[in-house]
Amino acid sequence: MIKKFLAAVLMTLSSAAALAVPFGSQSVLVVEDDTGKILFEKNADNVVPIASLTKLMTAMVVLDAHQDMNEMIEIEKSDVDTLKHSSSRVPVGASIPRRDVLQLALMSSDNRAAAALGRTYPGGTEAFRAAVKRKSAALGMNQTVIEEPTGLSPHNRSTAADLVKMATAASNYAEITRITTSSDHMVNIKGREVEYHNTNRLVGAKGWDIGLSKTGYTQEAGRCLIMRVKAAGKNATMVLLNAGASSVRILDALNIRRHVLGDTIPVAAAAPRAPRMRASAGGPRVKASAGGARLKASAGRSKVKKAVLTRHRKHR
Q1: Which residue, among 46, 48, 58, 90, has the nearest Cα to 219 in the 3D structure?
Q2: How many other β-carbons are positioned within 10 Å of the β-carbon of residue 17?
Q3: pLDDT at 124
Q4: Of 146, 148, 157, 168, which one has the fewest beta carbons inside 10 Å?
């Protein structure tokens, strides 16, 4: 009887500690995968824009269609973002196997790649939208509307509660889990090998066991993150929506691991680090070091760094 009482007290104290943590994301939901138990929630039923988290749904629908993953897809002008004018390192005219297009859409959150996947879906864009609608209904995502494959549209909206359902479904696709937990990938672009990196800086970080990952960003959606992690003996899914900065969503993930999951985080993984990026030939390069990212430049260091970050920030 005393043991049960003490266990209840400890659970209450743990919950109180978690509630006391000032999470910066406007919507937060953490669910234990094995039991479905909600470990923490904040505005989990608010319907909000979801930015590039959309691409998890895009990937599922594309894989459900069983298209030839070796088929070459040519990136067209119609794939270029004319809504947000986000940048892309995938040039118009490049022909890339569908497998690599999917990799770029998920891992590097490339909008042209995601748009090309929707455009080349069997039956075209309208058939893609219909497939997404059916998939959302089948998963019980009743508060979700997805109009296009990239997440650039503010009309792509959902809730943290619905997105946990999407993450759970996506984790059953081996290709999606493999891609979203890859730190980097080489793609042949017009005869030249180009290195792309994961938009989630925690993927590959020391001490993090991540089973699924997807970031998102638009001005309307803020910084978003879906991540399935194993920590402190628990398998859990976290959804973070509308954080004010990348550092905020990373700090929220760290606090969830520490205060909600009750796990100790290695020192090397505790401090948010700058993303490791490599620009194409002729552009600035960022070289990773033990303490984070280090820009290879001398004079004009801050100007180059600003240019690189500006180039990448809009489509994350």
Answers
A1: 48
A2: 13
A3: 97
A4: 168
What would the two tokens of residue 202 be?
Answer: 């925690």
Domain that holds residue 273: 21-313
Q: pTM of this prediction?
A: 0.80
pLDDT score, position 313: 47
Q: Which residues contact 97 (CB under 8 A, 6 or more apart)?
A: 69, 70, 71, 72, 73
Three-state SS at 145: strand
Q: What is the C-alpha separation between 230 and 162, in angstroms, rounded?
A: 21
263, 255 Cβ separation under 8 angstroms: no
Instruction: Tell me how far apart the alpha carbons of residues 214 and 198 are, in angstroms, rounded to a whole number.
Output: 9
Residues in the chain: 316
Distance CA 254, CA 23 (A): 10
User: pLDDT of 102-119, one tens digit each?
Assistant: 999 999 999 999 999 999
Per DSSP, the residues of 15-30 read HHHHHHS---SSEEEE
Give the rounded distance of the alpha carbon of 178 from its chain centre: 13
Catalytically active residues, by annotation? 52, 55, 109
How many distinct structural domains can be found in the chain?
Answer: 1
12 belongs to a structural domain: no
Is 121 a domain residue? yes
User: For residue 105, is it within any domain?
Assistant: yes
Q: Write out the two tokens for 275.
A: 């993303």
- Give the domain CATH number at 76: 3.40.710.10
Q: Which residues pair with 294 in a beta bridge?
A: 287
List, for residues 278-292, the tens digit of each pLDDT value. Answer: 333 333 333 333 333
Q: Give the lowest-confidence range in 34-38, 228-232, 264-268, 293-297.
A: 293-297
Euclidean distance between CA atoms 243 and 25, whole angstroms: 4
Q: Quote the radius of gyration of the chain (alpha carbons, Å).
A: 20
Six-digit token string for 195: 């290195």
Q: Give domain status of residue 5, yes or no.
A: no
* Mean pLDDT in residue range 62-81: 98
